[in-house]
Amino acid sequence: MEILTYPLTAKHATDLLIKLCLKVFPSTFKDLGFLLGRLTVRLHDPPCVINPDWLGEPLENAFGRCIEQLKAMLVTGFTLSSASFSLAFPFLRYIVQKAQMTSEDYPAVMATLR
Fold this sequence. Notes:
Blueprint: H1 10-24, H2 30-44, H3 59-75, H4 82-99, H5 106-113
């Protein structure tokens, strides 16, 4: 997802990521795909204008909501396709890495992501 960090590609990559997330999740989980795309974009802090509506919810709350939706999806028996997992992986990797930090490290890391 490094492409989100380049000024010339950030806007197009952001739009493409959102469209891909909406396509690879089944229709019953389109909201989850959109949320996952938005959070992935926010985590990479692209050098382009981000829709202000995406910034209204604190990241910590959005992370929890996304994890709960992923859990609910998997509990219902749906499995992630390779395409949906590929798009979810950067977000999931971030969550796992965050879980390995101490509570003292977390604010410093969050400050670097914004």
